[in-house]
């Protein structure tokens, strides 16, 4: 199969019945949750008050891909590896660490070995249903670079930006520290939002210097505290 995954059933066989229920409980138990619902975090829409939020706390920004979202669950069945994709309907086919530490952990334990595997066995790549890639994470004040350089060069569709707080832990369900920004042309929610709450590309770029100055100030304070 070539091209992006368009359906949860495309890369494998969907889990059903007892297997699906058991997998949901297994993931919930692994995460210390009583609720077996979809475990992924959900962003909130970016409004004008969030411009101040970006100056108060450190955020990373990345492009918001236009497509389907899945969580990847790696487990085992006896001696065999099992790989499940979990969609937002909660179908199946280190949480307290900060975002930068979670990304570093993922790179060290999963992504770097995965890249090494591709280099060692390139002949297997045509048989893979999809290839994993890491999004470029930038400091939140780099929004102008996102608009001018990164977004125009993307090989896939894009419908906005995602701002994720560096210092807060992963949260199931709605997370007030994951901010979803969309341009007005893509923002279907804008019909119910106040005009004064809308944040444009120009607004984000204008706020970048203040965000950068506050980021540097916090970095200097943290460095002084460690000295």
What do these coordinates show?
Strand 6 (158-165) and strand 7 (173-181) form a beta hairpin. Helices cover 34% and strands 20% of the residues. The protein has a single domain, classed as 2-Layer Sandwich (D-amino Acid Aminotransferase, Chain A, domain 1), CATH 3.30.470. The chain has 227 residues and is α+β, with helices and mostly antiparallel strands. The chain is globular. The strands form 2 sheets. Strands 1-7-6-2-5 form a 5-stranded mixed beta sheet, covered by helices on one side. It has a two-stranded antiparallel ribbon with strand order 3-4. The protein starts with 16 loop residues before the first helix and ends with a helix. The model has no long low-confidence stretch (mean pLDDT 83).
Total individual domains: 1
The CATH topology is given as: D-amino Acid Aminotransferase, Chain A, domain 1
Structural class: alpha+beta
CATH superfamily: DNA ligase/mRNA capping enzyme
- Beta-strand portion reads 15-25%
How many beta-strand elements?
7
Helix content: 25-40%
Give the SSE map:
Blueprint: H1 17-30, E1 41-45, H2 49-56, E2 59-65, E3 71-77, E4 80-86, H3 99-120, E5 138-139, H4 143-150, E6 158-165, E7 173-181, H5 201-226
Parallel strand pairs: 1-7
Antiparallel strand pairs: 2-5, 2-6, 3-4, 6-7
Helix pairs in contact: 2-5
Short description:
The chain is α+β, with helices and mostly antiparallel strands and 227 residues long.
Provide the descriptors you would attach to this structure in a database record:
alpha+beta; D-amino Acid Aminotransferase, Chain A, domain 1; 5-stranded mixed β-sheet; 7 strands
């Amino acid at each position: 199969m070539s091209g992006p995954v368009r359906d949860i059933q495309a890369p494998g066989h969907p889990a059903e019945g007892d297997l699906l229920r058991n997998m949901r409980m297994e993931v919930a138990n692994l995460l210390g949750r009583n609720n077996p619902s979809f475990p992924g975090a959900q962003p909130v829409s970016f409004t004008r008050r969030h411009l101040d939020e970006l100056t108060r706390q450190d955020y990373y920004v990345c492009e918001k891909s236009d497509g389907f979202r899945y969580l990847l669950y790696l487990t085992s069945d006896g001696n065999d590896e099992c790989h499940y994709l979990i969609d937002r309907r909660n179908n199946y086919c280190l949480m307290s660490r900060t975002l930068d530490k979670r990304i570093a952990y993922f790179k060290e334990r999963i992504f770097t070995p995965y890249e090494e595997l591709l280099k060692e066995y390139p002949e297997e790549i045509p048989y893979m249903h999809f290839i994993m890639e890491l999004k470029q994470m930038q400091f939140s004040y780099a929004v102008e670079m996102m608009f001018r350089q990164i977004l125009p060069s993307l090989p896939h569709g894009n419908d906005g930006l995602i701002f994720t707080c560096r210092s807060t832990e992963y949260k199931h369900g709605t997370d007030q520290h994951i901010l979803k920004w969309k341009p007005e042309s893509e923002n279907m929610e804008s019909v119910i939002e106040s005009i004064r709450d809308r944040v444009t590309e120009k607004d984000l770029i204008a706020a970048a210097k203040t965000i950068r100055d506050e980021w540097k100030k916090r970095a200097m304070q943290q460095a002084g505290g460690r000295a």
